[in-house]
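Can't attach files on this board, so I'm pasting raw text. These are the components:
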Amino acid sequence: MTIHTADAVNTADAPKSAAGTSVSPPPARRRGRHRVQGQWWVPWAFLMPALLLFLVFRYIPMVQAIGMSVENVRPYLGNEFVGLKNYETILSDPAFRDATVNTLVLAFGQTLGCLVLGFLLALLLEGQTRKLSFIRSAAFLPVVVPMAVIAELWRIMYHPTDNGFLNSIIGIVGLAPSEYINSPDSAMWSIMLMGIWRGGPYDMMIILAGLAGIDRGLYEAATVDGANRWQRILHVTLPGLRPVFSILFILAAIRGFRVFTEVYLMTNGGPNGATEVVMTLLYKLGLEQQKLGVGSAGAVLLFLATLVLTLAVQLMLRRKKDA
Amino acid sequence: MTAGTDTALGLTESRTIVGIGVKVLLYAVVVALFAGPLLALLSGAFSEVTDPTELSIIPNRPTLENFSVAFDFGVLGYLMNSFFVVGFGLLLQVIVSVLAGYALARKKFRFSALALVAILATMMLPDEILALPLSILLADIPFLHINLMGTLAGMIVPIGAWAFSILVMTEFMKDVPLELEEAARIDGASELRVFAQIIVPLCKPAIGVIGVFGFTMIWDQYLLPLLVSTSSDTYTLPLALRTLRIEPEVTPGVVMAASLLALAPSVIVFLLFQRSFARGLTSGALKG
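---
Top answer:
Structure tokens for the assembled complex are below.
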């Protein structure tokens, strides 16, 4: 970005100096610019495609979701207003409550796991040499592989017999084979593990960018003061990364709330509802059972949860900044 | 510089034999952990893997049979669908983002803050939550009354505008010096000309960033194609993997061959444009 801007300045200077000597005294020039800037519709014309697409595919569906959440949706018969009944239905549904708990467990576990893994990886792979950038790229690959592919690959690796791919690897260390996604006891953490494997390297890249922003002088000062490696990380690196961690936390938590593809492909909520998350449940309610009103009520609740989380973290951050 | 103060761990500076040994070992573990499963996929795609237990990092009984079976199940058609969606989706996304970024970054106008908030707010309205109403809406697009269900267009138009791309574009365009634009206007360039001949050419690096990001994002799409597809004719390749797996004649090797085709484009794009990718990653996450 900087190189490019320097270029732009150079090319900018040439015509300006040529034009500046010949014509246009400053006031006239300003008036000329004002005229062009003054056409109020010009910016809106440039914004229109974006605003129109957002209106049609984001805002209208949102309004529709809120509308359907208070209606009994009956195709061809017309919807009837039922007030908060859909919300009552979904909130009293034990399946929804279980799915909410599962979603929270998965979101929290994955978020935390990704942050820890990302931080460890970033510490390990921080540095300038070309060899390191090669290793960083290798570690980052899972992030760009489509989730559908990851899910299929891990399904095969999670093959539950003792000669399955992962089972034969953990067998080397002497661990007992696991049922992974086939057993209600282990399905949740199996999905979580896969999510951490894919999400950790993403966090690593962001944390690396944060590490680059930490003043090298602080490390030097800490070393001179006799701090060891561990103390340096605890007292210099971690505090320096606090804003990065909070942003990653919000992003990952929101992503965790909306988790769908991996669960849908790995277990589709099974075995025995052990991995049912809010989104897979809503998908079944709305698109398989055609209970669109109840499904929409659930979607609105999910949206509110996301919103509350985002605002709460924003408030917390702001207060910390003011203090 | 004092030894060992360049990075948090100070790993890169260690010069002792033990230090280097530990370092190399740790790096090897990292590579094995993240690239290993993908290498197993690669080798599985080219090996005769008839049972999940035969998956291994080293290819055994090499064969191209998996691909030909996958093609028999129409994988090539699904791949074409994917390319169609990503091609036109990305084109639309880049056009929309460049236009919107220009207005937001280079124009002072009333309610511009409101427009920006309306765009940023969509980041909090994820597709997943809108899935149900979106599936109804796509059957009858407002104002136009067109049915996009069961069409590839239905997977393209909704992703045409993406707040992240608009944000990256806006931030970048703010850095283009104003003098350049003024000079062009003094020379009598029209609004469109300034946009198309001055601003857009200078924004090529940013277009690269949103292009690479948009590509991987659209290629990874799952829920939207799932909602829109009413038959396997419009399946994208990621979507087809699941139906492929369920086929009784399809071995894990075939699934992995198809998976390899599904992951190759985004991995290639990432490897070719790593620098753009890293820039988008940090600008998107740290400025937001």
